[in-house]
Specification:
By secondary structure, the chain is mainly β. It is 0% helix and 41% strand.
Amino acid sequence: MALTSALLAFAGMPNASKAADLFNNTNTMQVNYCPSPFVNCPPRFKLSAPATIDVIQTYHRAGAATAGKTIGLRDASGSMVLGPLQVTTQPASPGFENWIASVGGQQLPAGTYTVIDSQADTWSQNVQSCDGPGVAGAACNKGFAIVRGGAPDPSESITDCSATCTVPPATTSPPAFACSAHGPKSTCKRAAASTDNPGGGVFCTDGKNTTTCNCQTGCTTH
């Protein structure tokens, strides 16, 4: 598909958040649409420290009604950590529109994330739109995206909890676990064995979310 004659008008995008740009691969060069296979279109970015996410924006060829249009974030394991979030749309350059998803200050730990968009075939990109700095195997021709947010509220915290088994679980030789948690409201301790937690394990909380880990069932967060 040939490049469109439209130029991006991100300078006129709504200032949906006063937060800083954690990721922004937009530019004002001529645009195209994500080529097939669309799986190559979602941009990736790296958070070097925990952050709160306020707003995610993408830029599309104007088309169908807003219903069904969603944005989300996946972590490096492929798990959806935000969304899919319903979007609102606003007109941009003629024939194009901004998709805007309000996140509301959701906290994420440091790591690499991928912006997921429900309509990659209308997602605009060009050779200057790339993955974020520090992303392994970074590539260009990625869909335009802006992720806005900031540092976590110091009164909040994020838990990082993982189980590491050094011996097979056994009654006479219980497994050993590693667990870490950080932040003013975070705690981490051993969890007693129970029906739901065979062999015992670890229990971490950040005051909002709780993670439990054991060798039989792995880790769950709720």
